[in-house]
Amino acid sequence: MQAFAEDPFDGIMGLGTEPTSLFGSLISQGLPGTICLKKAPVALFSFYLTPQSVGNAELTLGGIDNSKFKEPMVFSPLHSNSGFWTIVSSQVTVNGKTADSLLQPLRFIFDSGTSNLVFPKNLTETIYALISPNIAPNPAVPGTYGLPCSQISTLPAVIDFTFPSTTGTPFNLTLPTEALSVGPFTSNQSLCQTVINSFDFDFDPIIGGSILKYYYSTWDAGNKTLGFAKTVSTEELL
């Protein structure tokens, strides 16, 4: 694909919910469901994505590695957004504060292949406005935002995304302060790139590895749910 011509990988492995994805193909060919959540095998996979300092990330096909988390896993029902792992948030808060537009139901696509968070421009800038007025677009890299690196260590930036569980009790997925910066821009080492990128096309916001690396996640196509539990290695950060 021309769009990925400059990226250093050999191919794309699709783990979407559609039968045409790689995971859908594995299910159709008899992928064993090794975990019985409701007294019956289910078709699922699980990710243990980790911060670079932790390492040893894992993908488990057909099961759940319970050694990677202590607290019970919480599941959220999938939205009927065909082909994508989408769940609906009831609110977003930043350092305990929010805005009217963040109190509306928002569909979020979860994508293990996306490194950061990729949101529509208005959502991106509403969240950043609750963190610091100094976070601004970086014209040198379209879609990105930056902040003077000297300000990062003094800036609280806890972002909570609230989702419904299958039991009816809401739960939060939290992006901790330490995840705000993804490092200096190559072209300007004094300017640090912030974790949310923006786009102007018509698409649901995408949550990627920046949050997923703090949770063990189970992607259950059989029961149409996404499950999350704080990992053993990162639970003290949340």
Description:
There is one protein chain. With 238 residues, the protein is mainly beta. It contains 3 helices and 17 strands. The chain has helices spanning 22-28, 121-129, 209-212, and strands at residues 44-48, 58-61, 74-77, 86-89, 91-94, 106-110, 117-120, 136-137, 145-148, 159-163, 171-175, 181-185, 188-194, 196-199, 206-207, 215-220, 225-230. Residues 1-6 and 34-41 have low confidence and may be disordered. 8% of the residues lie in helices and 32% in strands. The strands form 4 sheets. Strands 2-1-16-17-3 form a 5-stranded antiparallel sheet, with no helix packed on it.
Write the layout of secondary structure elements.
Layout: H1 22-28, E1 44-48, E2 58-61, E3 74-77, E4 86-89, E5 91-94, E6 106-110, E7 117-120, H2 121-129, E8 136-137, E9 145-148, E10 159-163, E11 171-175, E12 181-185, E13 188-194, E14 196-199, E15 206-207, H3 209-212, E16 215-220, E17 225-230
Parallel strand pairs: 6-15, 7-14
Antiparallel strand pairs: 1-2, 1-16, 3-17, 4-6, 5-10, 7-15, 8-9, 9-13, 10-11, 12-13, 16-17
